[in-house]
Write a structure and sequence with these properties.
InterPro entries: MFS, MFS_trans_sf, Proton-linked_MCT. It comes from Iphiclides podalirius. This is Monocarboxylate transporter. Keywords: Membrane, Transmembrane, Transmembrane helix. The protein is 74% helix and 3% strand. Helix 4 runs parallel beside helix 6, helix 4 crosses helix 11 and helix 13 packs antiparallel against helix 14. It has 17 helices and five strands. By secondary structure, the protein is mostly helical. The longest helix has 43 residues. It is globular and about 65 Å long.
């Protein structure tokens, strides 16, 4: 994305005959650890959301509030992430990152005292979601600025840390609930999340840690970068800019004129709604089957382990072989249509665990490959395409997840909620199938 290189220019800066380049290590390792903690704490507790708040929603006489909270959380995350990317063009990593960490922790603190669903929507959904959304572009931006040659290896390490958190948090939350109860568990999670302040504090400007290149590069070579002089707009100019104007200035809407890109955008968005809502609602479904907290936590954990195995296998396979990311994503989405329905066909524990493992294996096709699918739809304009994806997915989640909650209210069963998730995936399958047929005829 553009903001990932907002503090760097792809030209060369010479110092004593040698170019200044990112450290590709050094302080960058601390940045890498900070990024790892950000995703561990952000994604880990979110994956245990259904387990953590199950009894809370039961006390509220229904679980329809869960998709509402999740929808608002991801909507706020997406919109704040987009605005954060814009802010990084004007402010430092730490300024933006500490704002995000502060919002995230404030959401934690306020969540400890919630007694109603609408309060949880505001504290966890809006404030905490926006805080995490702000930190995501900061983390990616800082990481990309500090690493060049070691970028893939370091990002793999971060992904592993995030996956480990997804595996361990459900069991950890189950243990804490049993030992300390609901409110104290929320307080302990808040205490752990305080580490995000330190994670954002290590996001130094890369200019402070540039090193001299060992090779003298000629003008025009890549390994070398130039510090871009950042100009801060006047206070009057900043106030004058409305949110609508900011979005208009930073979103290239002409991409929507391309039917193939529009099909990709809509398909990815609906697939994301299904994936995110499934992760939140599966624990609630299992509780409705009469499973214990430990059984539910174990089921969520094995799904996360399957996801980690799939990510590792995909990384190894794609190292040796070239794959069509769009076809893999499409195939995974087709399987997901079936898996969402299969999960509500039987409450037998062996069957549910099997479906969860398969879903974990398939899920990596959505989570890992979506940037590669997006870049094939707009190869020369990926930053603009990503911005549109963030905005569309955010607003779609704000609409679709509450509607799924209304389905539960109307039917009193999770059966039709999971059918709705399958329909979301089906939108992607149908759109891309039509696109394939239409453009195949045009090229033949």
């Amino acid at each position: 994305m553009d903001e990932a290189f907002a503090h760097l220019e792809g030209a060369e800066k010479k110092h004593c005959g040698k170019a200044l380049v990112p450290p590709d290590g050094g302080w960058g390792y601390l940045v890498c650890i900070g990024v790892g903690f950000t995703f561990m704490l952000g994604f880990g507790s979110s994956n245990a959301f259904g387990i953590l708040f199950n009894n809370f929603f039961i006390e509220q006489n229904g679980a329809s509030g869960l998709p509402l909270v999740i929808g608002v959380y991801n909507g706020a995350l997406s919109i704040a992430g987009f605005l954060s990317g814009i802010a990084l063009k004007k402010y430092s990593f730490r300024q933006v990152g500490l704002l995000g960490a502060g919002l995230f922790i404030l959401g934690d603190v306020l969540t400890i005292f919630v007694t109603r669903t609408y309060q949880l929507v505001f504290t966890f959904g809006v404030i905490r979601g926006a805080g995490f959304g702000v930190m995501i572009p900061v983390s990616f931006t800082a990481f990309n600025c500090y690493f060049t040659k070691k970028r893939t290896a370091m990002m793999s390490a971060n992904q592993t840390m995030s996956s480990i958190a997804s595996i361990t948090f459900p069991i950890l939350v189950t243990f804490l609930l049993g030992e300390y109860g609901f409110r104290w568990t929320l307080a302990l999670i808040m205490a752990v999340d305080l580490h995000l302040l330190f994670a954002m504090l290590v996001m130094h400007p890369v200019e402070w840690h540039m090193i001299k290149s060992k090779d003298v590069s000629s003008p025009g070579d890549d390994a070398a970068v130039e510090i871009k002089e950042m100009t801060t707009p006047s206070r009057h100019e900043s106030i004058q800019k409305s949110i609508i104007k900011i979005i208009y200035d930073n979103v290239e809407l002409d991409l929507l004129r391309d039917p193939r890109f529009l099909s990709t955008l809509v398909g990815l968005g609906f697939a994301f709604v299904s994936d995110v809502t499934y992760l939140a609602m599966e624990p609630m479904l299992l509780f409705s089957y009469g499973y214990s907290q430990m059984q539910v936590a174990t089921c969520v954990m094995v799904g996360a382990i399957a996801d980690l195995v799939a990510r590792f296998s995909l990384a190894v396979f794609t190292y040796f072989y070239t794959v069509d990311s769009r076809k893999i994503f499409f195939s995974g989405t087709c399987l997901t249509v079936i898996l969402r329905i299969a999960l509500v066909c039987s409450s037998e524990i062996w069957f549910v665990f099997t479906i969860t493992v398969i879903s974990g294996l398939v899920r990596c096709s959505v989570q890992v490959l979506f940037p590669l699918v997006l870049v094939t739809a707009a190869p020369d304009r990926f930053p603009a395409a990503l911005a549109l994806h963030i905005i569309f997915s955010g607003f779609l989640m704000l609409i679709a997840d509450p509607l799924i909650g209304l389905i539960y209210d109307a039917t009193g069963t999770y059966l039709y909620c999971f059918f709705a998730m399958s329909v979301c995936c089906l939108v992607c399958v149908v759109l891309w199938t039509i696109e394939y047929i239409v453009y195949r005829k045009k090229t033949s």
